[in-house]
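Changelog-linked ticket: NAP example.
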Amino acid sequence: MQLTDSRALVTGATSGIGRAIAEAFGREGAHVLVAGRDAARAAEVVAGIVASGGTAAPVIADLGAPDGIAVLVEAAKAHGPIDVLVNNAGIYPMSGTAQTDEATFEATMNLNVRAPFFLTAAFAPLMAAQGRGRIINISSIAAHLGTTGMALYGASKAALELLTKAWAAEFGPAGVNVNAIAPGPTRTPGTAPMGAGLDEFTSGFPAGRPGVPEEIAGAAVYLAGPGAAFVHGATIVVDGGRMAI
Ligand SMILES: NC(=O)c1ccc[n+]([C@@H]2O[C@H](COP(=O)([O-])OP(=O)(O)OC[C@H]3O[C@@H](n4cnc5c(N)ncnc54)[C@H](OP(=O)(O)O)[C@@H]3O)[C@@H](O)[C@H]2O)c1
């Protein structure tokens, strides 16, 4: 097991990619704090981790709410020091620039940029003080492509990737590894409304199919584990080969 004696906080762990990361961390021996808004789904994820022999607890907060980040920080700190923070919670509204209203802009930037920023501001100095820690930001290949309908979402993830590098510079010297993962299209409850469209969209990629959350979680286990000690400020692209062609 790669994460024994680690305590990991995973945002958006009640669904999709975050849930798969939480479950994989649990299998690797981490104590997992399962963060989300939906207490029932958080309890279900926690029960699954415990049933598989791991340990976990729910931490409930709305990261889009004005006090949501402070609520989550306080709830997580009550469990003890955090060794691994995964900034995964995110939304991906898709619309043309002229069709995007200010409420959507604010909601996207609040969850995709503001929440990772202030969660890192809260936990990275504590990790630095203990001389070790891992921060993993879940970006997207949308950060690397100019795509109609994804201007706002792509910009939010491009900001997160720049923050990944800035935080590597800021906290790396104190023993905190900050990295990102850029998934390609992945089947999750969030992308379920795309239905067969996701298969069509990915059919021309080298993998020829969408990813599954467990395939993204594997990269997170690597970045949280001992094998990634020399990896700082990197983005691992896990996209079925889309960015290669
Ligand atoms: N799926 C893809 O194709 C894909 C591709 C590239 C990147 N990504 C990125 O991967 C991450 C996860 O995507 P996903 O597809 O797994 O998403 P998902 O299935 O829609 O799950 C989103 C998670 O975020 C949480 N969340 C949403 N709003 C929140 C809020 N205001 N406060 C706290 N938590 C909130 C949800 O929890 P609650 O409902 O319990 O609050 C849920 O656990 C996102 O950052 C996304 O941008 C996804």
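Closing comment: Example verified and attached. The domain at 7-244 is CATH 3.40.50.720 (Rossmann fold). The helical segments are 16-27, 39-51, 68-77, 102-130, 151-171, 196-202, 213-224.
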